[in-house]
Amino acid sequence: MREDNRKEVLLEVENLKKYFLGKRRFFSSKRTVTKAVDDISMQIEQSKIMGLVGESGCGKSTAGKTILNLIEPTGGSVKFKGKTIFDVENNIQIPFKEMSSLRKDMQLIFQDPYSSLNPRKTVQQIVEEGMKKHKMGTPAEIKERCEEMLYLCGLDKTALNRYPHEFSGGQRQRVGIARALSVNPQFVVCDEPTAALDVSIQSQILNLMLDLKDKFSLTYLFISHNLSVVRYFCDEISVMYLGKIVEIGSSQEVYKNPLNPYSKALISSVPISHPLEEKERIYLNGSIPSAANIPTGCRFRSRCKYEKEICRTIEPDLIEVEPGHFVACHLYE
Q1: Is residue 176 within 8 Å of 115, Cβ to Cβ?
Q2: What's 229's domain CATH number?
Q3: Contact 76, 50 (CB under 8 A)
Q4: Closest by alpha carbon to 2, among 325, 282, 332, 278?
Q5: Count of domains for the chain
Q6: Range of the domain at 249
Q7: How far is CA 3 from CA 9, 68, 165, 282, 324, in A?
Q8: Which long-range contacts (CB under 8 A, 24 or more apart) does 28-32 make?
Q9: CA 105 from chain center: how many Å?
Q10: Which residues are 191's β-sheet partners?
């Protein structure tokens, strides 16, 4: 997609696929195949934030978990710091012990702070679990590290002996962030970390994550459906539709000059920031098709007003229209 620079690129994803097999129907030997992630590629540079946006059900969260090797991939490859984690086509899979050791460098912040924390464990037990797993110090050093991470995340050491139910949603998410960063990772997948929080709390969590990114030189894959957040939070944006990436570019370029009709519709749905601001809202007809019954040709054609004959038979490739700005649409070929 772009020139390879291994000194800067931290994560490389090539032709990643994740399919799920459904149950057999009555009187049929065939099984449905749900293509949750279908041939996506991206590169994330060191200390950058890549935003992955799209409607609910488009495969964003599945892509993030597959990249982390938490879900077994169907196809494609992922490289982290030049090391291949898996390459399905060439039958390459990182050994279990190496992957277990690599987990501390690749962490996940979950969407729901209520279900992602074990209600039977104290905050200290939750935050120190990863450090104990990777043997990152003595019990005294690990406890000190817990206190430090909670302090950096806006909580004091009195929280160590409390349980998750004693905290608000925003405070629980701070505990989740402290847990993810306690093992000193380099790459973090943020799976809609503010979606379950009040709007007033969202900005606090986002500012916290930016501060921690600068302090620890972190690299984020930020999964969200909120384009108004992604515009200012991320360096680059990948727009995903029905398992495919349809546009990639810098956040400001994609927001100010969206090329794919789906990207245009998404951005037009962002609420205006000023009463006197005027914006034309683009309304899409119909609903997103099922990933188990993907239409032929362009996946967006059934909802696109620019549909042409070629859109019905040939799926568009992701091509570079402007420097660093890629789009998959027959309008630009």
Answers
A1: no
A2: 3.40.50.300
A3: no
A4: 325
A5: 1
A6: 9-118+186-198+217-271+279-332
A7: 10, 24, 48, 35, 10
A8: 32/292
A9: 16
A10: 223
DSSP 160-194: GG--GGGS-HHHHHHHHHHHHHTT--SEEEEESTT
The rounded distance, in Å, linking the Cα atoms of 269 and 224 is 14
Query: Of the given ranges (66-70, 110-114, 157-161, 326-330), which has the lowest mean pLDDT?
Result: 110-114
Could you tell me the pTM of the whole model?
A: 0.90
263 domain residue, yes or no:
yes
The pairing of beta strand 244-250 with beta strand 236-241: antiparallel
Exposed (0-12), middle (13-18) or buried (19+): which is 296, by Cβ within 10 Å? exposed
Which uninterrupted H or E stretch holds 253? helix 251-256
260-288 pLDDT per residue, tens? 999 998 888 877 776 767 777 887 887 78
* Residue 205 counted as domain residue: no
pLDDT at 333 (0 to 100) = 78
Contacts of residue 184, Cβ cutoff 8 Å, sequence gap at least 6: 104, 136, 216
Highest mean pLDDT among 64-68, 154-158, 329-333: 64-68
Report which of 9, 19, 20 is spatially closest to residue 40, judged by C-alpha positions: 19
CB 123 within 8 A of CB 164: yes
Asked whether residue 3 is domain-assigned, the answer is: no
The reply to whether 170 falls in a domain is no
